User: What shape does this take?
Amino acid sequence: MAKSHHPLGIDIGGSGIKGAPVDLEVGHFARERLRIETPVESTPTAVADVVARISEHFKHWTGTSPIGVTVPAVVSRGVTRTAANIDQTWIGTDAEALLSSKLGRPVTVVNDADAAGVGELHYGAARDVAGLVLLATLGTGIGTALLNAGELVPNSELGHLQIDGVDAETCASSLARESDKLSWEEWAGRLQRYFAYVEDLLWPDLIVVGGGVSKHAQHYLPLLHLRAPIVPAQLGNAAGIVGAAWLAANQ
Ligand code: BGC
Assistant: This one.
């Protein structure tokens, strides 16, 4: 990698596709992030076209550096196995092969929460933490990342734990707070139930809460009573892009 070139991180979400070159010395964007609307038909080929536009936009800063791409889906060895808020044709698609051939350089595809976990592990709230860290992104759904002794255990999908027969993310996500018009206290009650359950199963040493709502952590994290400390993510919404770029550069 030329010294001035940085790996590119791209975050594919249900409403926007966002990318930025990442300075891995510090874990910050090296240029201002570019956001393009997710195509209404968010098929792999339509999304790959947007990813190519973002890559073209930053080519001066990224050169031929690798690209890390996050998706809201389980990813096994480059193949997307589920699809949350994106077109169902992602299921079974070899996303790494598709994007690498479209962009002409190595592409690493990773689950969005896993990427955020890796970002926090190297540059944020999970840095230098011994033992097991659970990161949960509270957004449209609940994404989770498990980081054990500095290593990602991929595809944990703990947002889909059943609580009272209900998928946890449908009642405890940030979207659920908005659509059910919950006060912070009411939402904290649901989060308490969720995190206490996860904690009883996994016994993490630290819980990190990410997603846009982590900006407002002071309204709900102090209301939670758990064994492990629970803290907001430090990289905010940049964590996924930063973590994806880190993974791409460290394959
Ligand atoms: C998906 C996860 C994803 C999370 C956040 C969940 O519904 O199953 O794969 O990480 O949403 O986007």
